[in-house]
UniProtKB/TrEMBL annotation:
Name assigned to this protein: Ketoreductase (KR) domain-containing protein
Example of a GO MF term: oxidoreductase activity
Tree of life domain: Eukaryota
Keyword Membrane set for record: no
Signal peptide span: none
SUPFAM superfamilies reported in the protein's UniProt record: NAD(P)-binding Rossmann-fold domains (SSF51735)
InterPro entries: NAD(P)-bd_dom_sf, Sec_Metab_Biosynth_Oxidored
Taxonomic lineage of the native organism: Eukaryota, Fungi, Dikarya, Ascomycota, Pezizomycotina
UniProtKB keywords: Oxidoreductase
Length: 145
């Protein structure tokens, strides 16, 4: 099995190699939150620029994470993006449009637009039968994908 050190070194090298415009869903807790904190921590030492869009439903926890991250990485930019239910494609569209507009404003002249790092940390484990959203999709798979 590959060592945890090799994984951490590889991730750190990537984080240090370029401006990272990052979108982290489920960013208010769990894997998403820890991804943001780790990005902020590693970036502060040798990173080339960090803009994180923390997508979450719970603003209080997200703002707490952002304030901790600004202490870890004062030169980073962290923005909370309020999500509804990401199993609804209309809510996903809203979040995408919000991030697109915010990043156009935040980017420097000449910067190539784009998201360089995506963590899809939202979700839950489902052991139940299919449940449909109001949009007629399977709620679990719609949320994941
Ligand atoms: N932890 C593990 O060992 C592990 C292993 C394999 C796979 N996974 C999968 O990885 C994902 C994240 O796991 P985790 O441990 O970080 O879970 P977690 O701590 O429960 O975090 C899940 C996040 O997803 C958000 N979320 C849930 N339903 C949502 C919805 N309908 N719309 C928008 N956001 C929603 C939650 O927001 P709220 O706080 O607002 O509810 C929460 O921030 C899950 O899909 C899990 O099944 C986890």
């Amino acid at each position: 099995m590959i060592s945890i050190k090799a994984v951490k070194d590889c991730n750190a090298a990537h984080i240090k190699s370029q401006l990272l415009v990052s979108v982290i869903t489920g960013g208010a807790s769990g894997i998403g939150e820890h991804s943001i904190r780790t990005l902020a921590d590693i970036h502060d030492k040798e990173g080339k620029g960090l803009r994180i869009y923390l997508v979450g439903r719970e603003g209080v926890a997200a703002k707490h994470t952002i304030s901790d991250c600004l202490e870890l990485c004062p030169k980073g930019a962290f923005r909370f993006v309020q999500a509804g239910d990401l199993a609804f494609l209309k809510d996903v569209d809203y979040v995408c449009a919000d991030i697109t507009t915010a990043d156009e404003i935040a980017s420097s002249p000449g910067e190539r637009p784009g998201i360089y790092f995506l963590v899809m940390g939202h979700g839950y484990l489902a052991f139940e039968a299919r449940q449909e959203t109001r949009e007629g999709l399977d709620a679990f798979y719609s949320l994941l994908y």
